[in-house]
Amino acid sequence: MNEASQEKETVRKLSDVAEIRYLHRGNTEIFLKNGFPGARILCRQEDGTKTVEEHNRIWLHRAFPFDLLEEYISVQNKDQEEIGLIREMADFDEAAQEILRSELEHKYYTPRITRIVSLKEAHGYSFWQAESDAGELQFTLQDTFRNLLRVGEDKVFVFDNYGNRYVIESLKALDRHSLRRIELYL
What pTM does this model have? Predict the structure, then answer.
């Protein structure tokens, strides 16, 4: 076997290795059961028969959590196995979209920092006091440079020692004193 035919054999398409099932209003019903989201998925078998796969509890994960808030949502079962992918929430009716949005807002709750009151550093930690849309916050970061994620030119995500996340939607919207406190780390 020559080198070209060996290379041809090892090249595979993504569809050969991973099957992606897209969920939308035509094949999936999103519902609430005991206050938690669930899904009924219509499955078409190779022989043409249809079955319904029911998941009384689903978990949602954004594939692109910082940019595409309502697109490419991974839907997982109780065993954390992906059962499908929502290409965009607009593919569902309003009631289903509300259930999905509510669950994602709960999971990805992120207070928006509007002002940095104080920011002090000691022994490799930074101690923050900030105002946000959720009220006054106090939190600590270890290795501040690594726990600030700049998305684009103007948006910054902050991750504290406990895994909580905060967002500064616009650096330009911060007052001069707040911007001075954070600009060293950007």
Answer: 0.70
